[in-house]
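Weekly puzzle thread! Below is a chain. First person to post its structure in token form gets bragging rights.
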Amino acid sequence: MEAAALYERFENNLETIFSYINRGLDVRTTPYNISMPLELNLLCDVLTSAGFPCQVTKDGFDALVEFHAVYMQEGKRVSDVMHRILEDKRAYLRTPEGTVLLKEQLIRRLEYFNEIAHSMEVIARQQQLGSPLQYNYPFLNK
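Winning reply:
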């Protein structure tokens, strides 16, 4: 998917993920509880380096709730900053691993949220249709 389309879908993707988490979608066998706070921290680093101070301090899905609250309050500013990043082909971000393009970092985060929203829709549809569990771990049945 192109960067412009990912940018346009970001708010919908964020809402989709947030709504499924709030409804209690069973995602216990996915790595989202660990990967989402990491991705949100990277997104906040990108936004902060572009002029929008943002920080996620919570763990797990609480990080998503925290970011969602910030986005609901400052959505227009966040969108403006993202748009400016996507237009700037020369902005760089220094990371411990080296220097990377800010635009590239943002695109990777937007792709992540697009994929997670799609995955959660698939998981929800499978659970809604009563598909047999793809896993049967004793610790999940408690």
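Puzzle host: Confirmed. Bonus trivia for everyone else. Residues 24 and 58 are 19 Å apart (CA to CA).
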